[in-house]
Design brief:
Layout (H helix, E strand, L loop, with lengths): L1 E2 L2 E6 L5 H10 L3 E4 L1 H9 L5 E2 H5 L14 H8 L5 H9 L7 E5 L3 H5 L6 H6 L4 H11 L5 E3 L5 H10 L3 E2 L1 H26 L16 E7 L9 E6 L13 E4 L5 H14 L6 E6 L2 E7 L3 H11 L1 H4 L2 E5 L5 H7 L4 E6 L4 H7 L6 E4 L10 E6 L2 E6 L9 E2 L7 H15 L6 E4 L4 E5 L5 H14 L8 E4 L7 H7 L5 E4 L6 H10 L3 E4 L8
Parallel strand pairs: 2-3, 2-5, 3-4, 5-6, 13-14, 14-15, 21-22, 22-23
Antiparallel strand pairs: 1-7, 8-9, 10-15, 11-12, 11-13, 16-17, 18-23, 19-20, 19-21
Helix pairs in contact: 1-9, 8-10, 12-14, 14-15, 17-18
Length: 518
Amino acid sequence: MITIKRAILSVSDKTGILDLAKALVESGAEIISTGGTAKALREAKIPVTEVSDVTAFPEMLDGRVKTLHPKIFAGILFRREVPEHRKEVEKEEVKPIDLVCVNLYPFEKVVAKKETERETAIENIDIGGPSLLRAAAKNSSDVVVLSDPDQYPAIINELKTKKGRVSKEIARQLGAAVFAKTSMYDAVISLYLNQEKETPAFPARISLLLEKIADLRYGENPHQKAGLYREKSFRSEIGLLVDAEQLQGKELSYNNYLDLEAALSLVRELDPEAAVIVKHNNPCGVALGPDILTAFQKARACDPVSAFGGIVALNRPVAENTAAEIITGFVECVIAPEYSEAALSAFKKKPDIRVLRLSWPKKEGGKFDFRKVGGGFLIQDVDATLFSELKIVSAKSPDAAQLEEMKFAYLVAKYTKSNAIILVKGGQTIGIGAGQMSRIDSARIAVSKAKDFGFDIAGAAVASDAFFPFPDALEVVAKEGAVSVIHPGGSKKDSDVLATAEKYKMIMVMAGQRHFRH
């Protein structure tokens, strides 16, 4: 057990500090404190000794130097069981400090304000606080260290029930918590100070700062645990999925978040009114329309079987008629920028549907895309563009409407798992072949899906997320009457593939940019 005879309290957030101080005094401990904290204690009639009275050295430099003194740090760091340490502190008249309670300047809150200037940010970098915390944490076998007001109640209870003592096990746990706290604090400062600095495309070190938002019911499967974390960042991005407001419905699951991200990534790039339905991370229906209701109806018609239990993303506000149409089938989630009150009332008829509200810019920000692998991360640039060029390579050229249809198909291909073949007609996907090991299988699936749901492929546009390694996959859709195709090109067989397109009098455009999605 650690007996608390002397404590130093120096806090920015005064929450709970008076209760802690009273418990310390009642247990017989002496309290040392600094400026604002000492003032708060005196006003509450709690006896306190100023740090400057201990160090015989005044606070200086506008408070930048307060606690950084050997009489403070030696009192914290000396090892009680080492005779030589005891002799040294006695010789220098250093008294032990058994409890350190510090919380840090609110750097993150200050710099989160857009009006904060760099000088103000710098002044909110705490120096003495982290130093005190780390010193106490290093010596947590002898010192109790508190870094968060949430920790106070347990220590107050220890002091009261154990006559001014705290168990060493609790002290060790509190010490470990400090390093998590100070490492995050330093990383946030580093992130802020380096946000405008020119850095290599892939710097030698990257700080990935994550803060837990919630525990999820389970992971991809019920036997897996999962949580949702927010990435800490000072970028001015808006419209990110973690910022979505859930208006009704059951708790979101791990898979819901994955599918919502897939749907959101695609729908935010579509214009005008558009609807995306995603199932198992792939779009199963995407459509444009003169209004959002029509767009949704067209998207669902693409593959109504796969749309069952899907995720719906809409890029315009939702009115009552659209909500009423959505709830005629089973959907897991709906995400849109806004809903009318009548729409929200309609959704309440199906209270398990998760309804989310999120406004977003057309393009998502961010520099890197992270993927976890065993023992590390793969990091790449975000796939932020659709094509590097649009090169017409066929004898026939597309008119403006045909070119827009091909661009739409290629955008859907960008957000579909490889290998992907997309059939589009009239601003609507009519067949999606996704995630196959061979491109010809994806083509056959796209054709099969279109036929299953009564679509005439004649006149359709085709998109392939990567080049055609052989002409066979193109021939599958050409035989069904598709009239145009867009793909990146780059195959050794490009000339053979073009010859097949010419054979069927198809328009062919090369985009020059592949969109594998693994």
